[in-house]
Amino acid sequence: MHRSDDIANLFNRFGGSVESYREIEPSYDYIEEAVELFNPDMSTAQPACEIPAPEPLAASSAPQPAEPSSVISSSSMAQVGSTPLSRLLLEIEQQRGGVAAEHPVEQGAPRLKAKVIVVVSAKGGVGRSTLAAALACAIKRAGGRTLALDLDPQNALCLHLGGSEDWPGIAASDSADEDWQPLVRKGFAGSRCLAYGVASGPLRRTVEQRLENDRFWLARHLAHLALDEQDTVVIDTPPGATVYLAQALEIADVVLGVTLADAAAYTSLNQLDRLLAPYLQRESPAQYKVVINQLDTSRQFSLDLCEVLKKRTGQQLLGVIRQDHFISEALAYDRNPLAHTPSTRGCQDVLDLTGSLCELLMYGTQESSLS
DSSP assignment, residue 285? Predict the structure, then answer.
């Protein structure tokens, strides 16, 4: 049966007329036009810019709703695609809380006028904090001040300078812009001290996370102290690779590695070299020097190992400090070991080392008396 007969029977069943039926013919104009636009083999293809624009709506047509502000343009999507996910999530959180999103501005390290000495070691127990305190007492640059800064959570540096563990410390500072000036305390021999402070486990982890996220946290704080060219900052750091060491090395003028004349300390020098290598290979690196501390001259093994260390370090060796019980006992008696008269041998070694350090800070060289 032909299709038209089916349609006629259908209309008769519902009381209609077949004459009112009009079959809709399919139109392929749009498809053909699309083929012409995107088929490179057709020579009659028309450029996309010549596609006629749709007829404007008549005045009687219903007004179109305004484009919602949440619609993202192609340029906006490109920008979103190049933005880190962490920043996008932060913006969403800030918008949800009704706070305008702020984009962090990358800032370089503030330039410090003061000279910075960073005391480091690969292992503990080498007398690093004791030496840092002694240097803070001994360094007297003309017209300048000396600031001892404790970046070691053990919070021991202030004790070597006549202070107390109750001194307020930098660990409790709330922000990168907080002024440290009210935290500065007077130490032995006219020195100044910034303690780390007593910090619980959670507070310490908070501080370390802040330092991890803010490369120039320490530099900005010290810049707020208005130190000048004649001032000196001596920084005590924890042993090994820590975020505290990384902060200090960013601003160091001299890195002072402390070691002992024993087998374990000799082995750890290689570890210290690897630790400092990324910072000492920069375009304008700090000067790296080594101090052999607490040399026991009563033991031939210590003297022999000291000679091995001298050859190992070469021109990096700044000085040797002989073992001196007066220095080690000074903490127990709450006294400045360098104030003893006449000076003991270890104290004299510290004073000689201080002279070499000051010359190094002023001229970039020092005369070695160890050869």
Answer: P
CB atoms within 10 A of CB 39: 10
Name every residue whose Cβ is closer than 8 Å to that of residue 152 and which is 6 or more positions away in sequence: 129, 196, 236, 237, 238, 244
Provide φ and ψ at 296, rounded to 5°: -90, 100
CATH number given to 115-363? 3.40.50.300
Tokens read off for 164: 């107390």
Indicate whether 313 pLDDT > 90. Answer: yes
Residue 336 burial (10 A CB sphere; 0-12, 13-18, 19+) = buried
The stretches of 64-118 forming alpha helices (DSSP H) are: 74-81, 85-96
- Residue 219 is encoded by which pair of tokens? 């530099």
The two beta strands, 254-260 and 146-150, are unpaired
Determine the Cα–Cα distance for residues 144 and 229; give it in Å rounded to an integer.
8
Tell me if the pTM is above 0.85: no
pLDDT digits (tens, 9 = 90+) for 173-216: 766 567 899 999 999 999 999 999 999 999 999 999 999 999 99
